[in-house]
Amino acid sequence: MTTTFLAGTTSSQAPAPSSAALTGKRRVAFASYVDENYLPGFLALLRSLALSNPGVCEDFVVLHDDLRPGSIAKIRALHPRIVLRRVNAEHYDSYKKGDQDNYLVRKAYFILDVFRIREYDTVITLDTDMVVLGDLGELLRLREGLAAVPQFFYGQHKLNSGLLVIQREYLTDAFCAKLDATGRSGDYELDKHDQGILNAVLDGDFVRLDARYNFVKRRLSGDLPVPDDTAILHFTGRHKPWQGGEAGYSLAEECWRGFDLSDADFHAAYLASSGGLHHDLLVHFGTPHVMRTGDVECARKVAAAHIAAGDYQDAVDILSSVHIPLDAAWPHEVLGHALMSVSRYEEAKAQLLLATSAPNRAATAYARLAQMAWVHGDNAEALRYATAGISVDPTHRSSRLWAQRAGTVPAQEQGSPGEQLAHVAFYMDRQGNAGDKLLPETVRLAFGEDTTSRRWHSVHAHRLFDEKALERVNARRGLVIGGGGLFIPDTMPNGNSAWQWNVADEQLRGIDVPIMVYAVGFNAFDGQSYRAGRFRESLRLLVEKSAFFGLRNHGSIAKVRAMLPDHLHDRVRFQPCPTTVSRQLVPGWTDPLHREDTVLLNAAYDRAGLRFGHDYGHFLAEIAKAVRGIGEHTEVRCAAHSLDDERIAFDLRREHGISLPVIPMYDFDNDAIRDLYARTRLVIGMRGHAGMIPFGVGTPIISLISHPKMAYFLADIERPEWGISVHERNLGAMLTERAIGILDAHAATVADVHERQQTLWKVTEANAADLRRILGA
């Protein structure tokens, strides 16, 4: 069947802002000034930072004026996120004090270049004669002012050199102008122990840090031991450990020599670190270690890190490069996981069967085997494997999930195929995410009131779309794909498309009924990307084949267009998520006559590292302030879209003594979800559909933005003020003020929601007319 493409109404859009700009996520970097003489010290610093904080990997800005290529290569080998930045020596010629050939003086000048950095919100400077011995989490969580350790010998009103924690308000042209003016005036003191220009400008106005964050060597004179709580040891003075050291400091210098390691010894030490290892560091150090040693356990760790980041082929490659003994169950299981994620199913099955031999890995291996069987449509085999997993570990949640899926009897189709539309969607499990549970039905309502199997043939996006599935779809009137954030690489990875629908190009080309992509979203998080060309190729083919290609916000439109050739841009159009216009779609809908005097709070915890970065403690404390402030006005309850969402209630009670009633929306049916949101006065939500669903039933919202899609939606309805970043410094006060403002002007805000909704409904109606023409209805 030949399909006719109907052009979209929006042919050009401005490029979408960066994800970080939309989410407000704080960008953190370390910085040092490095020259050839102090290179050995800097290399030891990098090793110490990784070994003492194995879960931390931020950009490291290297300020330099003359580093050799070989030196740069050594630096890059010790950190995967090095940012090189040349300083301008001539810039300081006009300064009136100091010998420009003296390293200590030059460093005091050049480190001021850190204040010219504009790419980051927080910059932490470290001297090259430092080593990191302890946790730097407190420094990474700092959000205000300019912090440093006061000078130990020269008075508490001056800061000590070496460590600065600088926030964005100091990374400005205005502050740099003050530094320059002071430098040119000569109105400052400068010696080898302090940054005189900076001290002159600050005049004691800085945040005081504990001395353990810049513990100077001079305090250890007489071979005193380094205190156990020292976080950063600073080898001040002329004699550096790599230059022969200095009498009277042997214990301190022994500490430094613990980080003067060969690459092989350093890699081995990092991989043996306890606690969570950062993905980037694990891959950066683990890969050469595996290539050098063939270490199977290390290869497993590196592969698991690749899988966690969505780099499935890299995981296959690293584990395939080593010999895995038959009885090494865990590596077999991880390789099986990686292989199934790139759709090499038979190889994956062999690896996972090997993994079932070990009791501690068997349940997980059986669950993955059940998943693969389910993906291939074999419910009987899926149930057999899931049951085996439960027999090994009766508490194994994943095995129970696949047993539930495999044992579910599909709805009987009541109509004839010629009257039906096929519908590719993510059909959520019984206790799954409430928003995703509601989506398939709401998409169907956009095509008519009958959402049952009489009019619809369900195609689960995560099941392999094979020849039989293709035959079933081609027997229908058309194929609808949506809604939800199907363009995401890691929810249910496959190598056929690299997005949620498990369809190979051959089967996609074979579809000969109209394809209608409806309200799909580009759902990558800030810090998450689609690395595979496979996604781009599948996306391009899908756009070429589609008679209608509608994305649910203009941010997604910009992202997808950037991946397409120019001639396909106009095929991508705006189709709001149908949940945002539920009042117009649900048959017999009436707005509630009365609302409960409640505010519903939703927080999301999937991919928490990408959502919060270093700021979860800050977020929780600010939410506690807001709950207390709003609670004086209206009762606040926790609305949990999924089981994990209940964590906000647990954490608030444990950390701040606040108890919230929890509403388990994951147990609700679709009518109950809509009814709950329609009867409350305000929803404060972090999940996309904790904003779109209440908006769609006429309830005011405030979005807690930790994902770009939240900002995309608010931009589309021209109400960006209804969103606040989870990283906002004054989140608690702002959220309280906006929430109470909405509650005090509730009728007017509801009317505004209805008006905003009308703009989305007009787009939906116009698209519906095009869809009717496509279907010949």
Description:
Keywords: Transferase. GO terms for molecular function: transferase activity. InterPro entries: Glyco_trans_8, GNT1/Glycosyltrans_8, Nucleotide-diphossugar_trans, Polysacch_pyruvyl_Trfase, TPR-like_helical_dom_sf. This protein is globular. 49% of the residues are buried. With 777 residues, it is of the alpha/beta class. It starts with 18 loop residues before the first helix and ends with a helix. The longest helix has 30 residues, at 746-775. Mean pLDDT is 90; it is low at 1-15 and 96-101. It has a 7-stranded mixed sheet with strand order 3-2-1-4-7-6-8, with no helix packed on it. Strands 11, 12, 13, 14, 15, 16 and 17 form a 7-stranded parallel sheet that branches. A 6-stranded parallel sheet has the order 20-19-18-21-22-23, with helices on both faces. Helix 11 (296-308) runs antiparallel to helix 12 and helix 15 runs parallel beside helix 17. It is built from 31 helices and 23 strands.
Going across the biggest sheet, name each strand in turn: 3-2-1-4-7-6-8
Overall, the morphology is globular
Number of strands: 23
Largest sheet, in brief, is: 7 strands, mixed
List low-pLDDT spans: 1-15, 96-101
Integer-rounded radius of gyration: 29 Å
Which structural class is indicated by helix and strand composition? alpha/beta
What is the helix fraction of residues, given as a range?
40-55%
Whole-number average pLDDT?
90
C-alpha end-to-end distance: 16 Å
**Beta-strand percentage?**
5-15%
Count, helices: 31
